[in-house]
Fold YgjP-like metallopeptidase domain-containing protein.
Amino acid sequence: MNSRIIRETVLSLHGLKIKLQFKLVKNITLRIKENGDIFLTAPVGMSVSEVQRFLESREQWLRQKLQLVLQAQQKQDKKYSMGELPFDGQHVWLWGRRLPAHFLLSSKKHGTYEVQADAVCFYYRSELSEKARCAFVEYFYKQELAGRGEQLLQAWEKKMGVRHTGLKVHRMKTRWGSCNVRTGSINLNTLLACWPQECLEYIVVHELAHLHEANHSPRFHAIVERYLPEWRERKKLLAAFKPL
């Protein structure tokens, strides 16, 4: 069948723009591309007014379909940038799980939180601005990471025969952790609290290994391999996981 375009124009349907193409076809066809562009192919013999009436009869379906297409596109385009606080106003991430975040007026001490089986409750005594809520969530991530990070550091330093002198937790844009080999101090990225715990454990072993070997030499990787043989899988998970 000849699908050559005979003529084309653009129609408007209550704010929607539809590209109309007349071709040597028998049936009228309406389609929406992934970017949201709307195309309609009609037989050469149909008039523009007939096509317009067809569009009006399909408007509800067209708008529903368009919404689904645009939602799918938005989800596909969404990306996570390292250092970005994983908080959409309604959910937080904890150890690889996306949990509802409930902000509750309460008589409890202002700025406390409670991790439940299926949600995290944040308690406050006066209304919080959006900025204050983000700060509250970041505090939550920092506290959770500091607690679990210290536990893992103490457990692994016994296995590896080293000793760290202190843990600092703060948000980083380019690193998951660092080790000051001169002082023995360890730094961990606050946002590791959002990733699966296996990722945190890998970073802990990685940084403690620097107390044996300062650089990333073959000897360093051999040390990591000795204590955590699955470190490559952990590293891949760290890179692949996205708290969206």
About this structure: The two ends are 46 Å apart (CA to CA). The chain has two domains: 5-75, 98-240. The longest strand covers residues 5-13. The domain at 98-240 is CATH 3.30.2010.10 (Zincin-like).
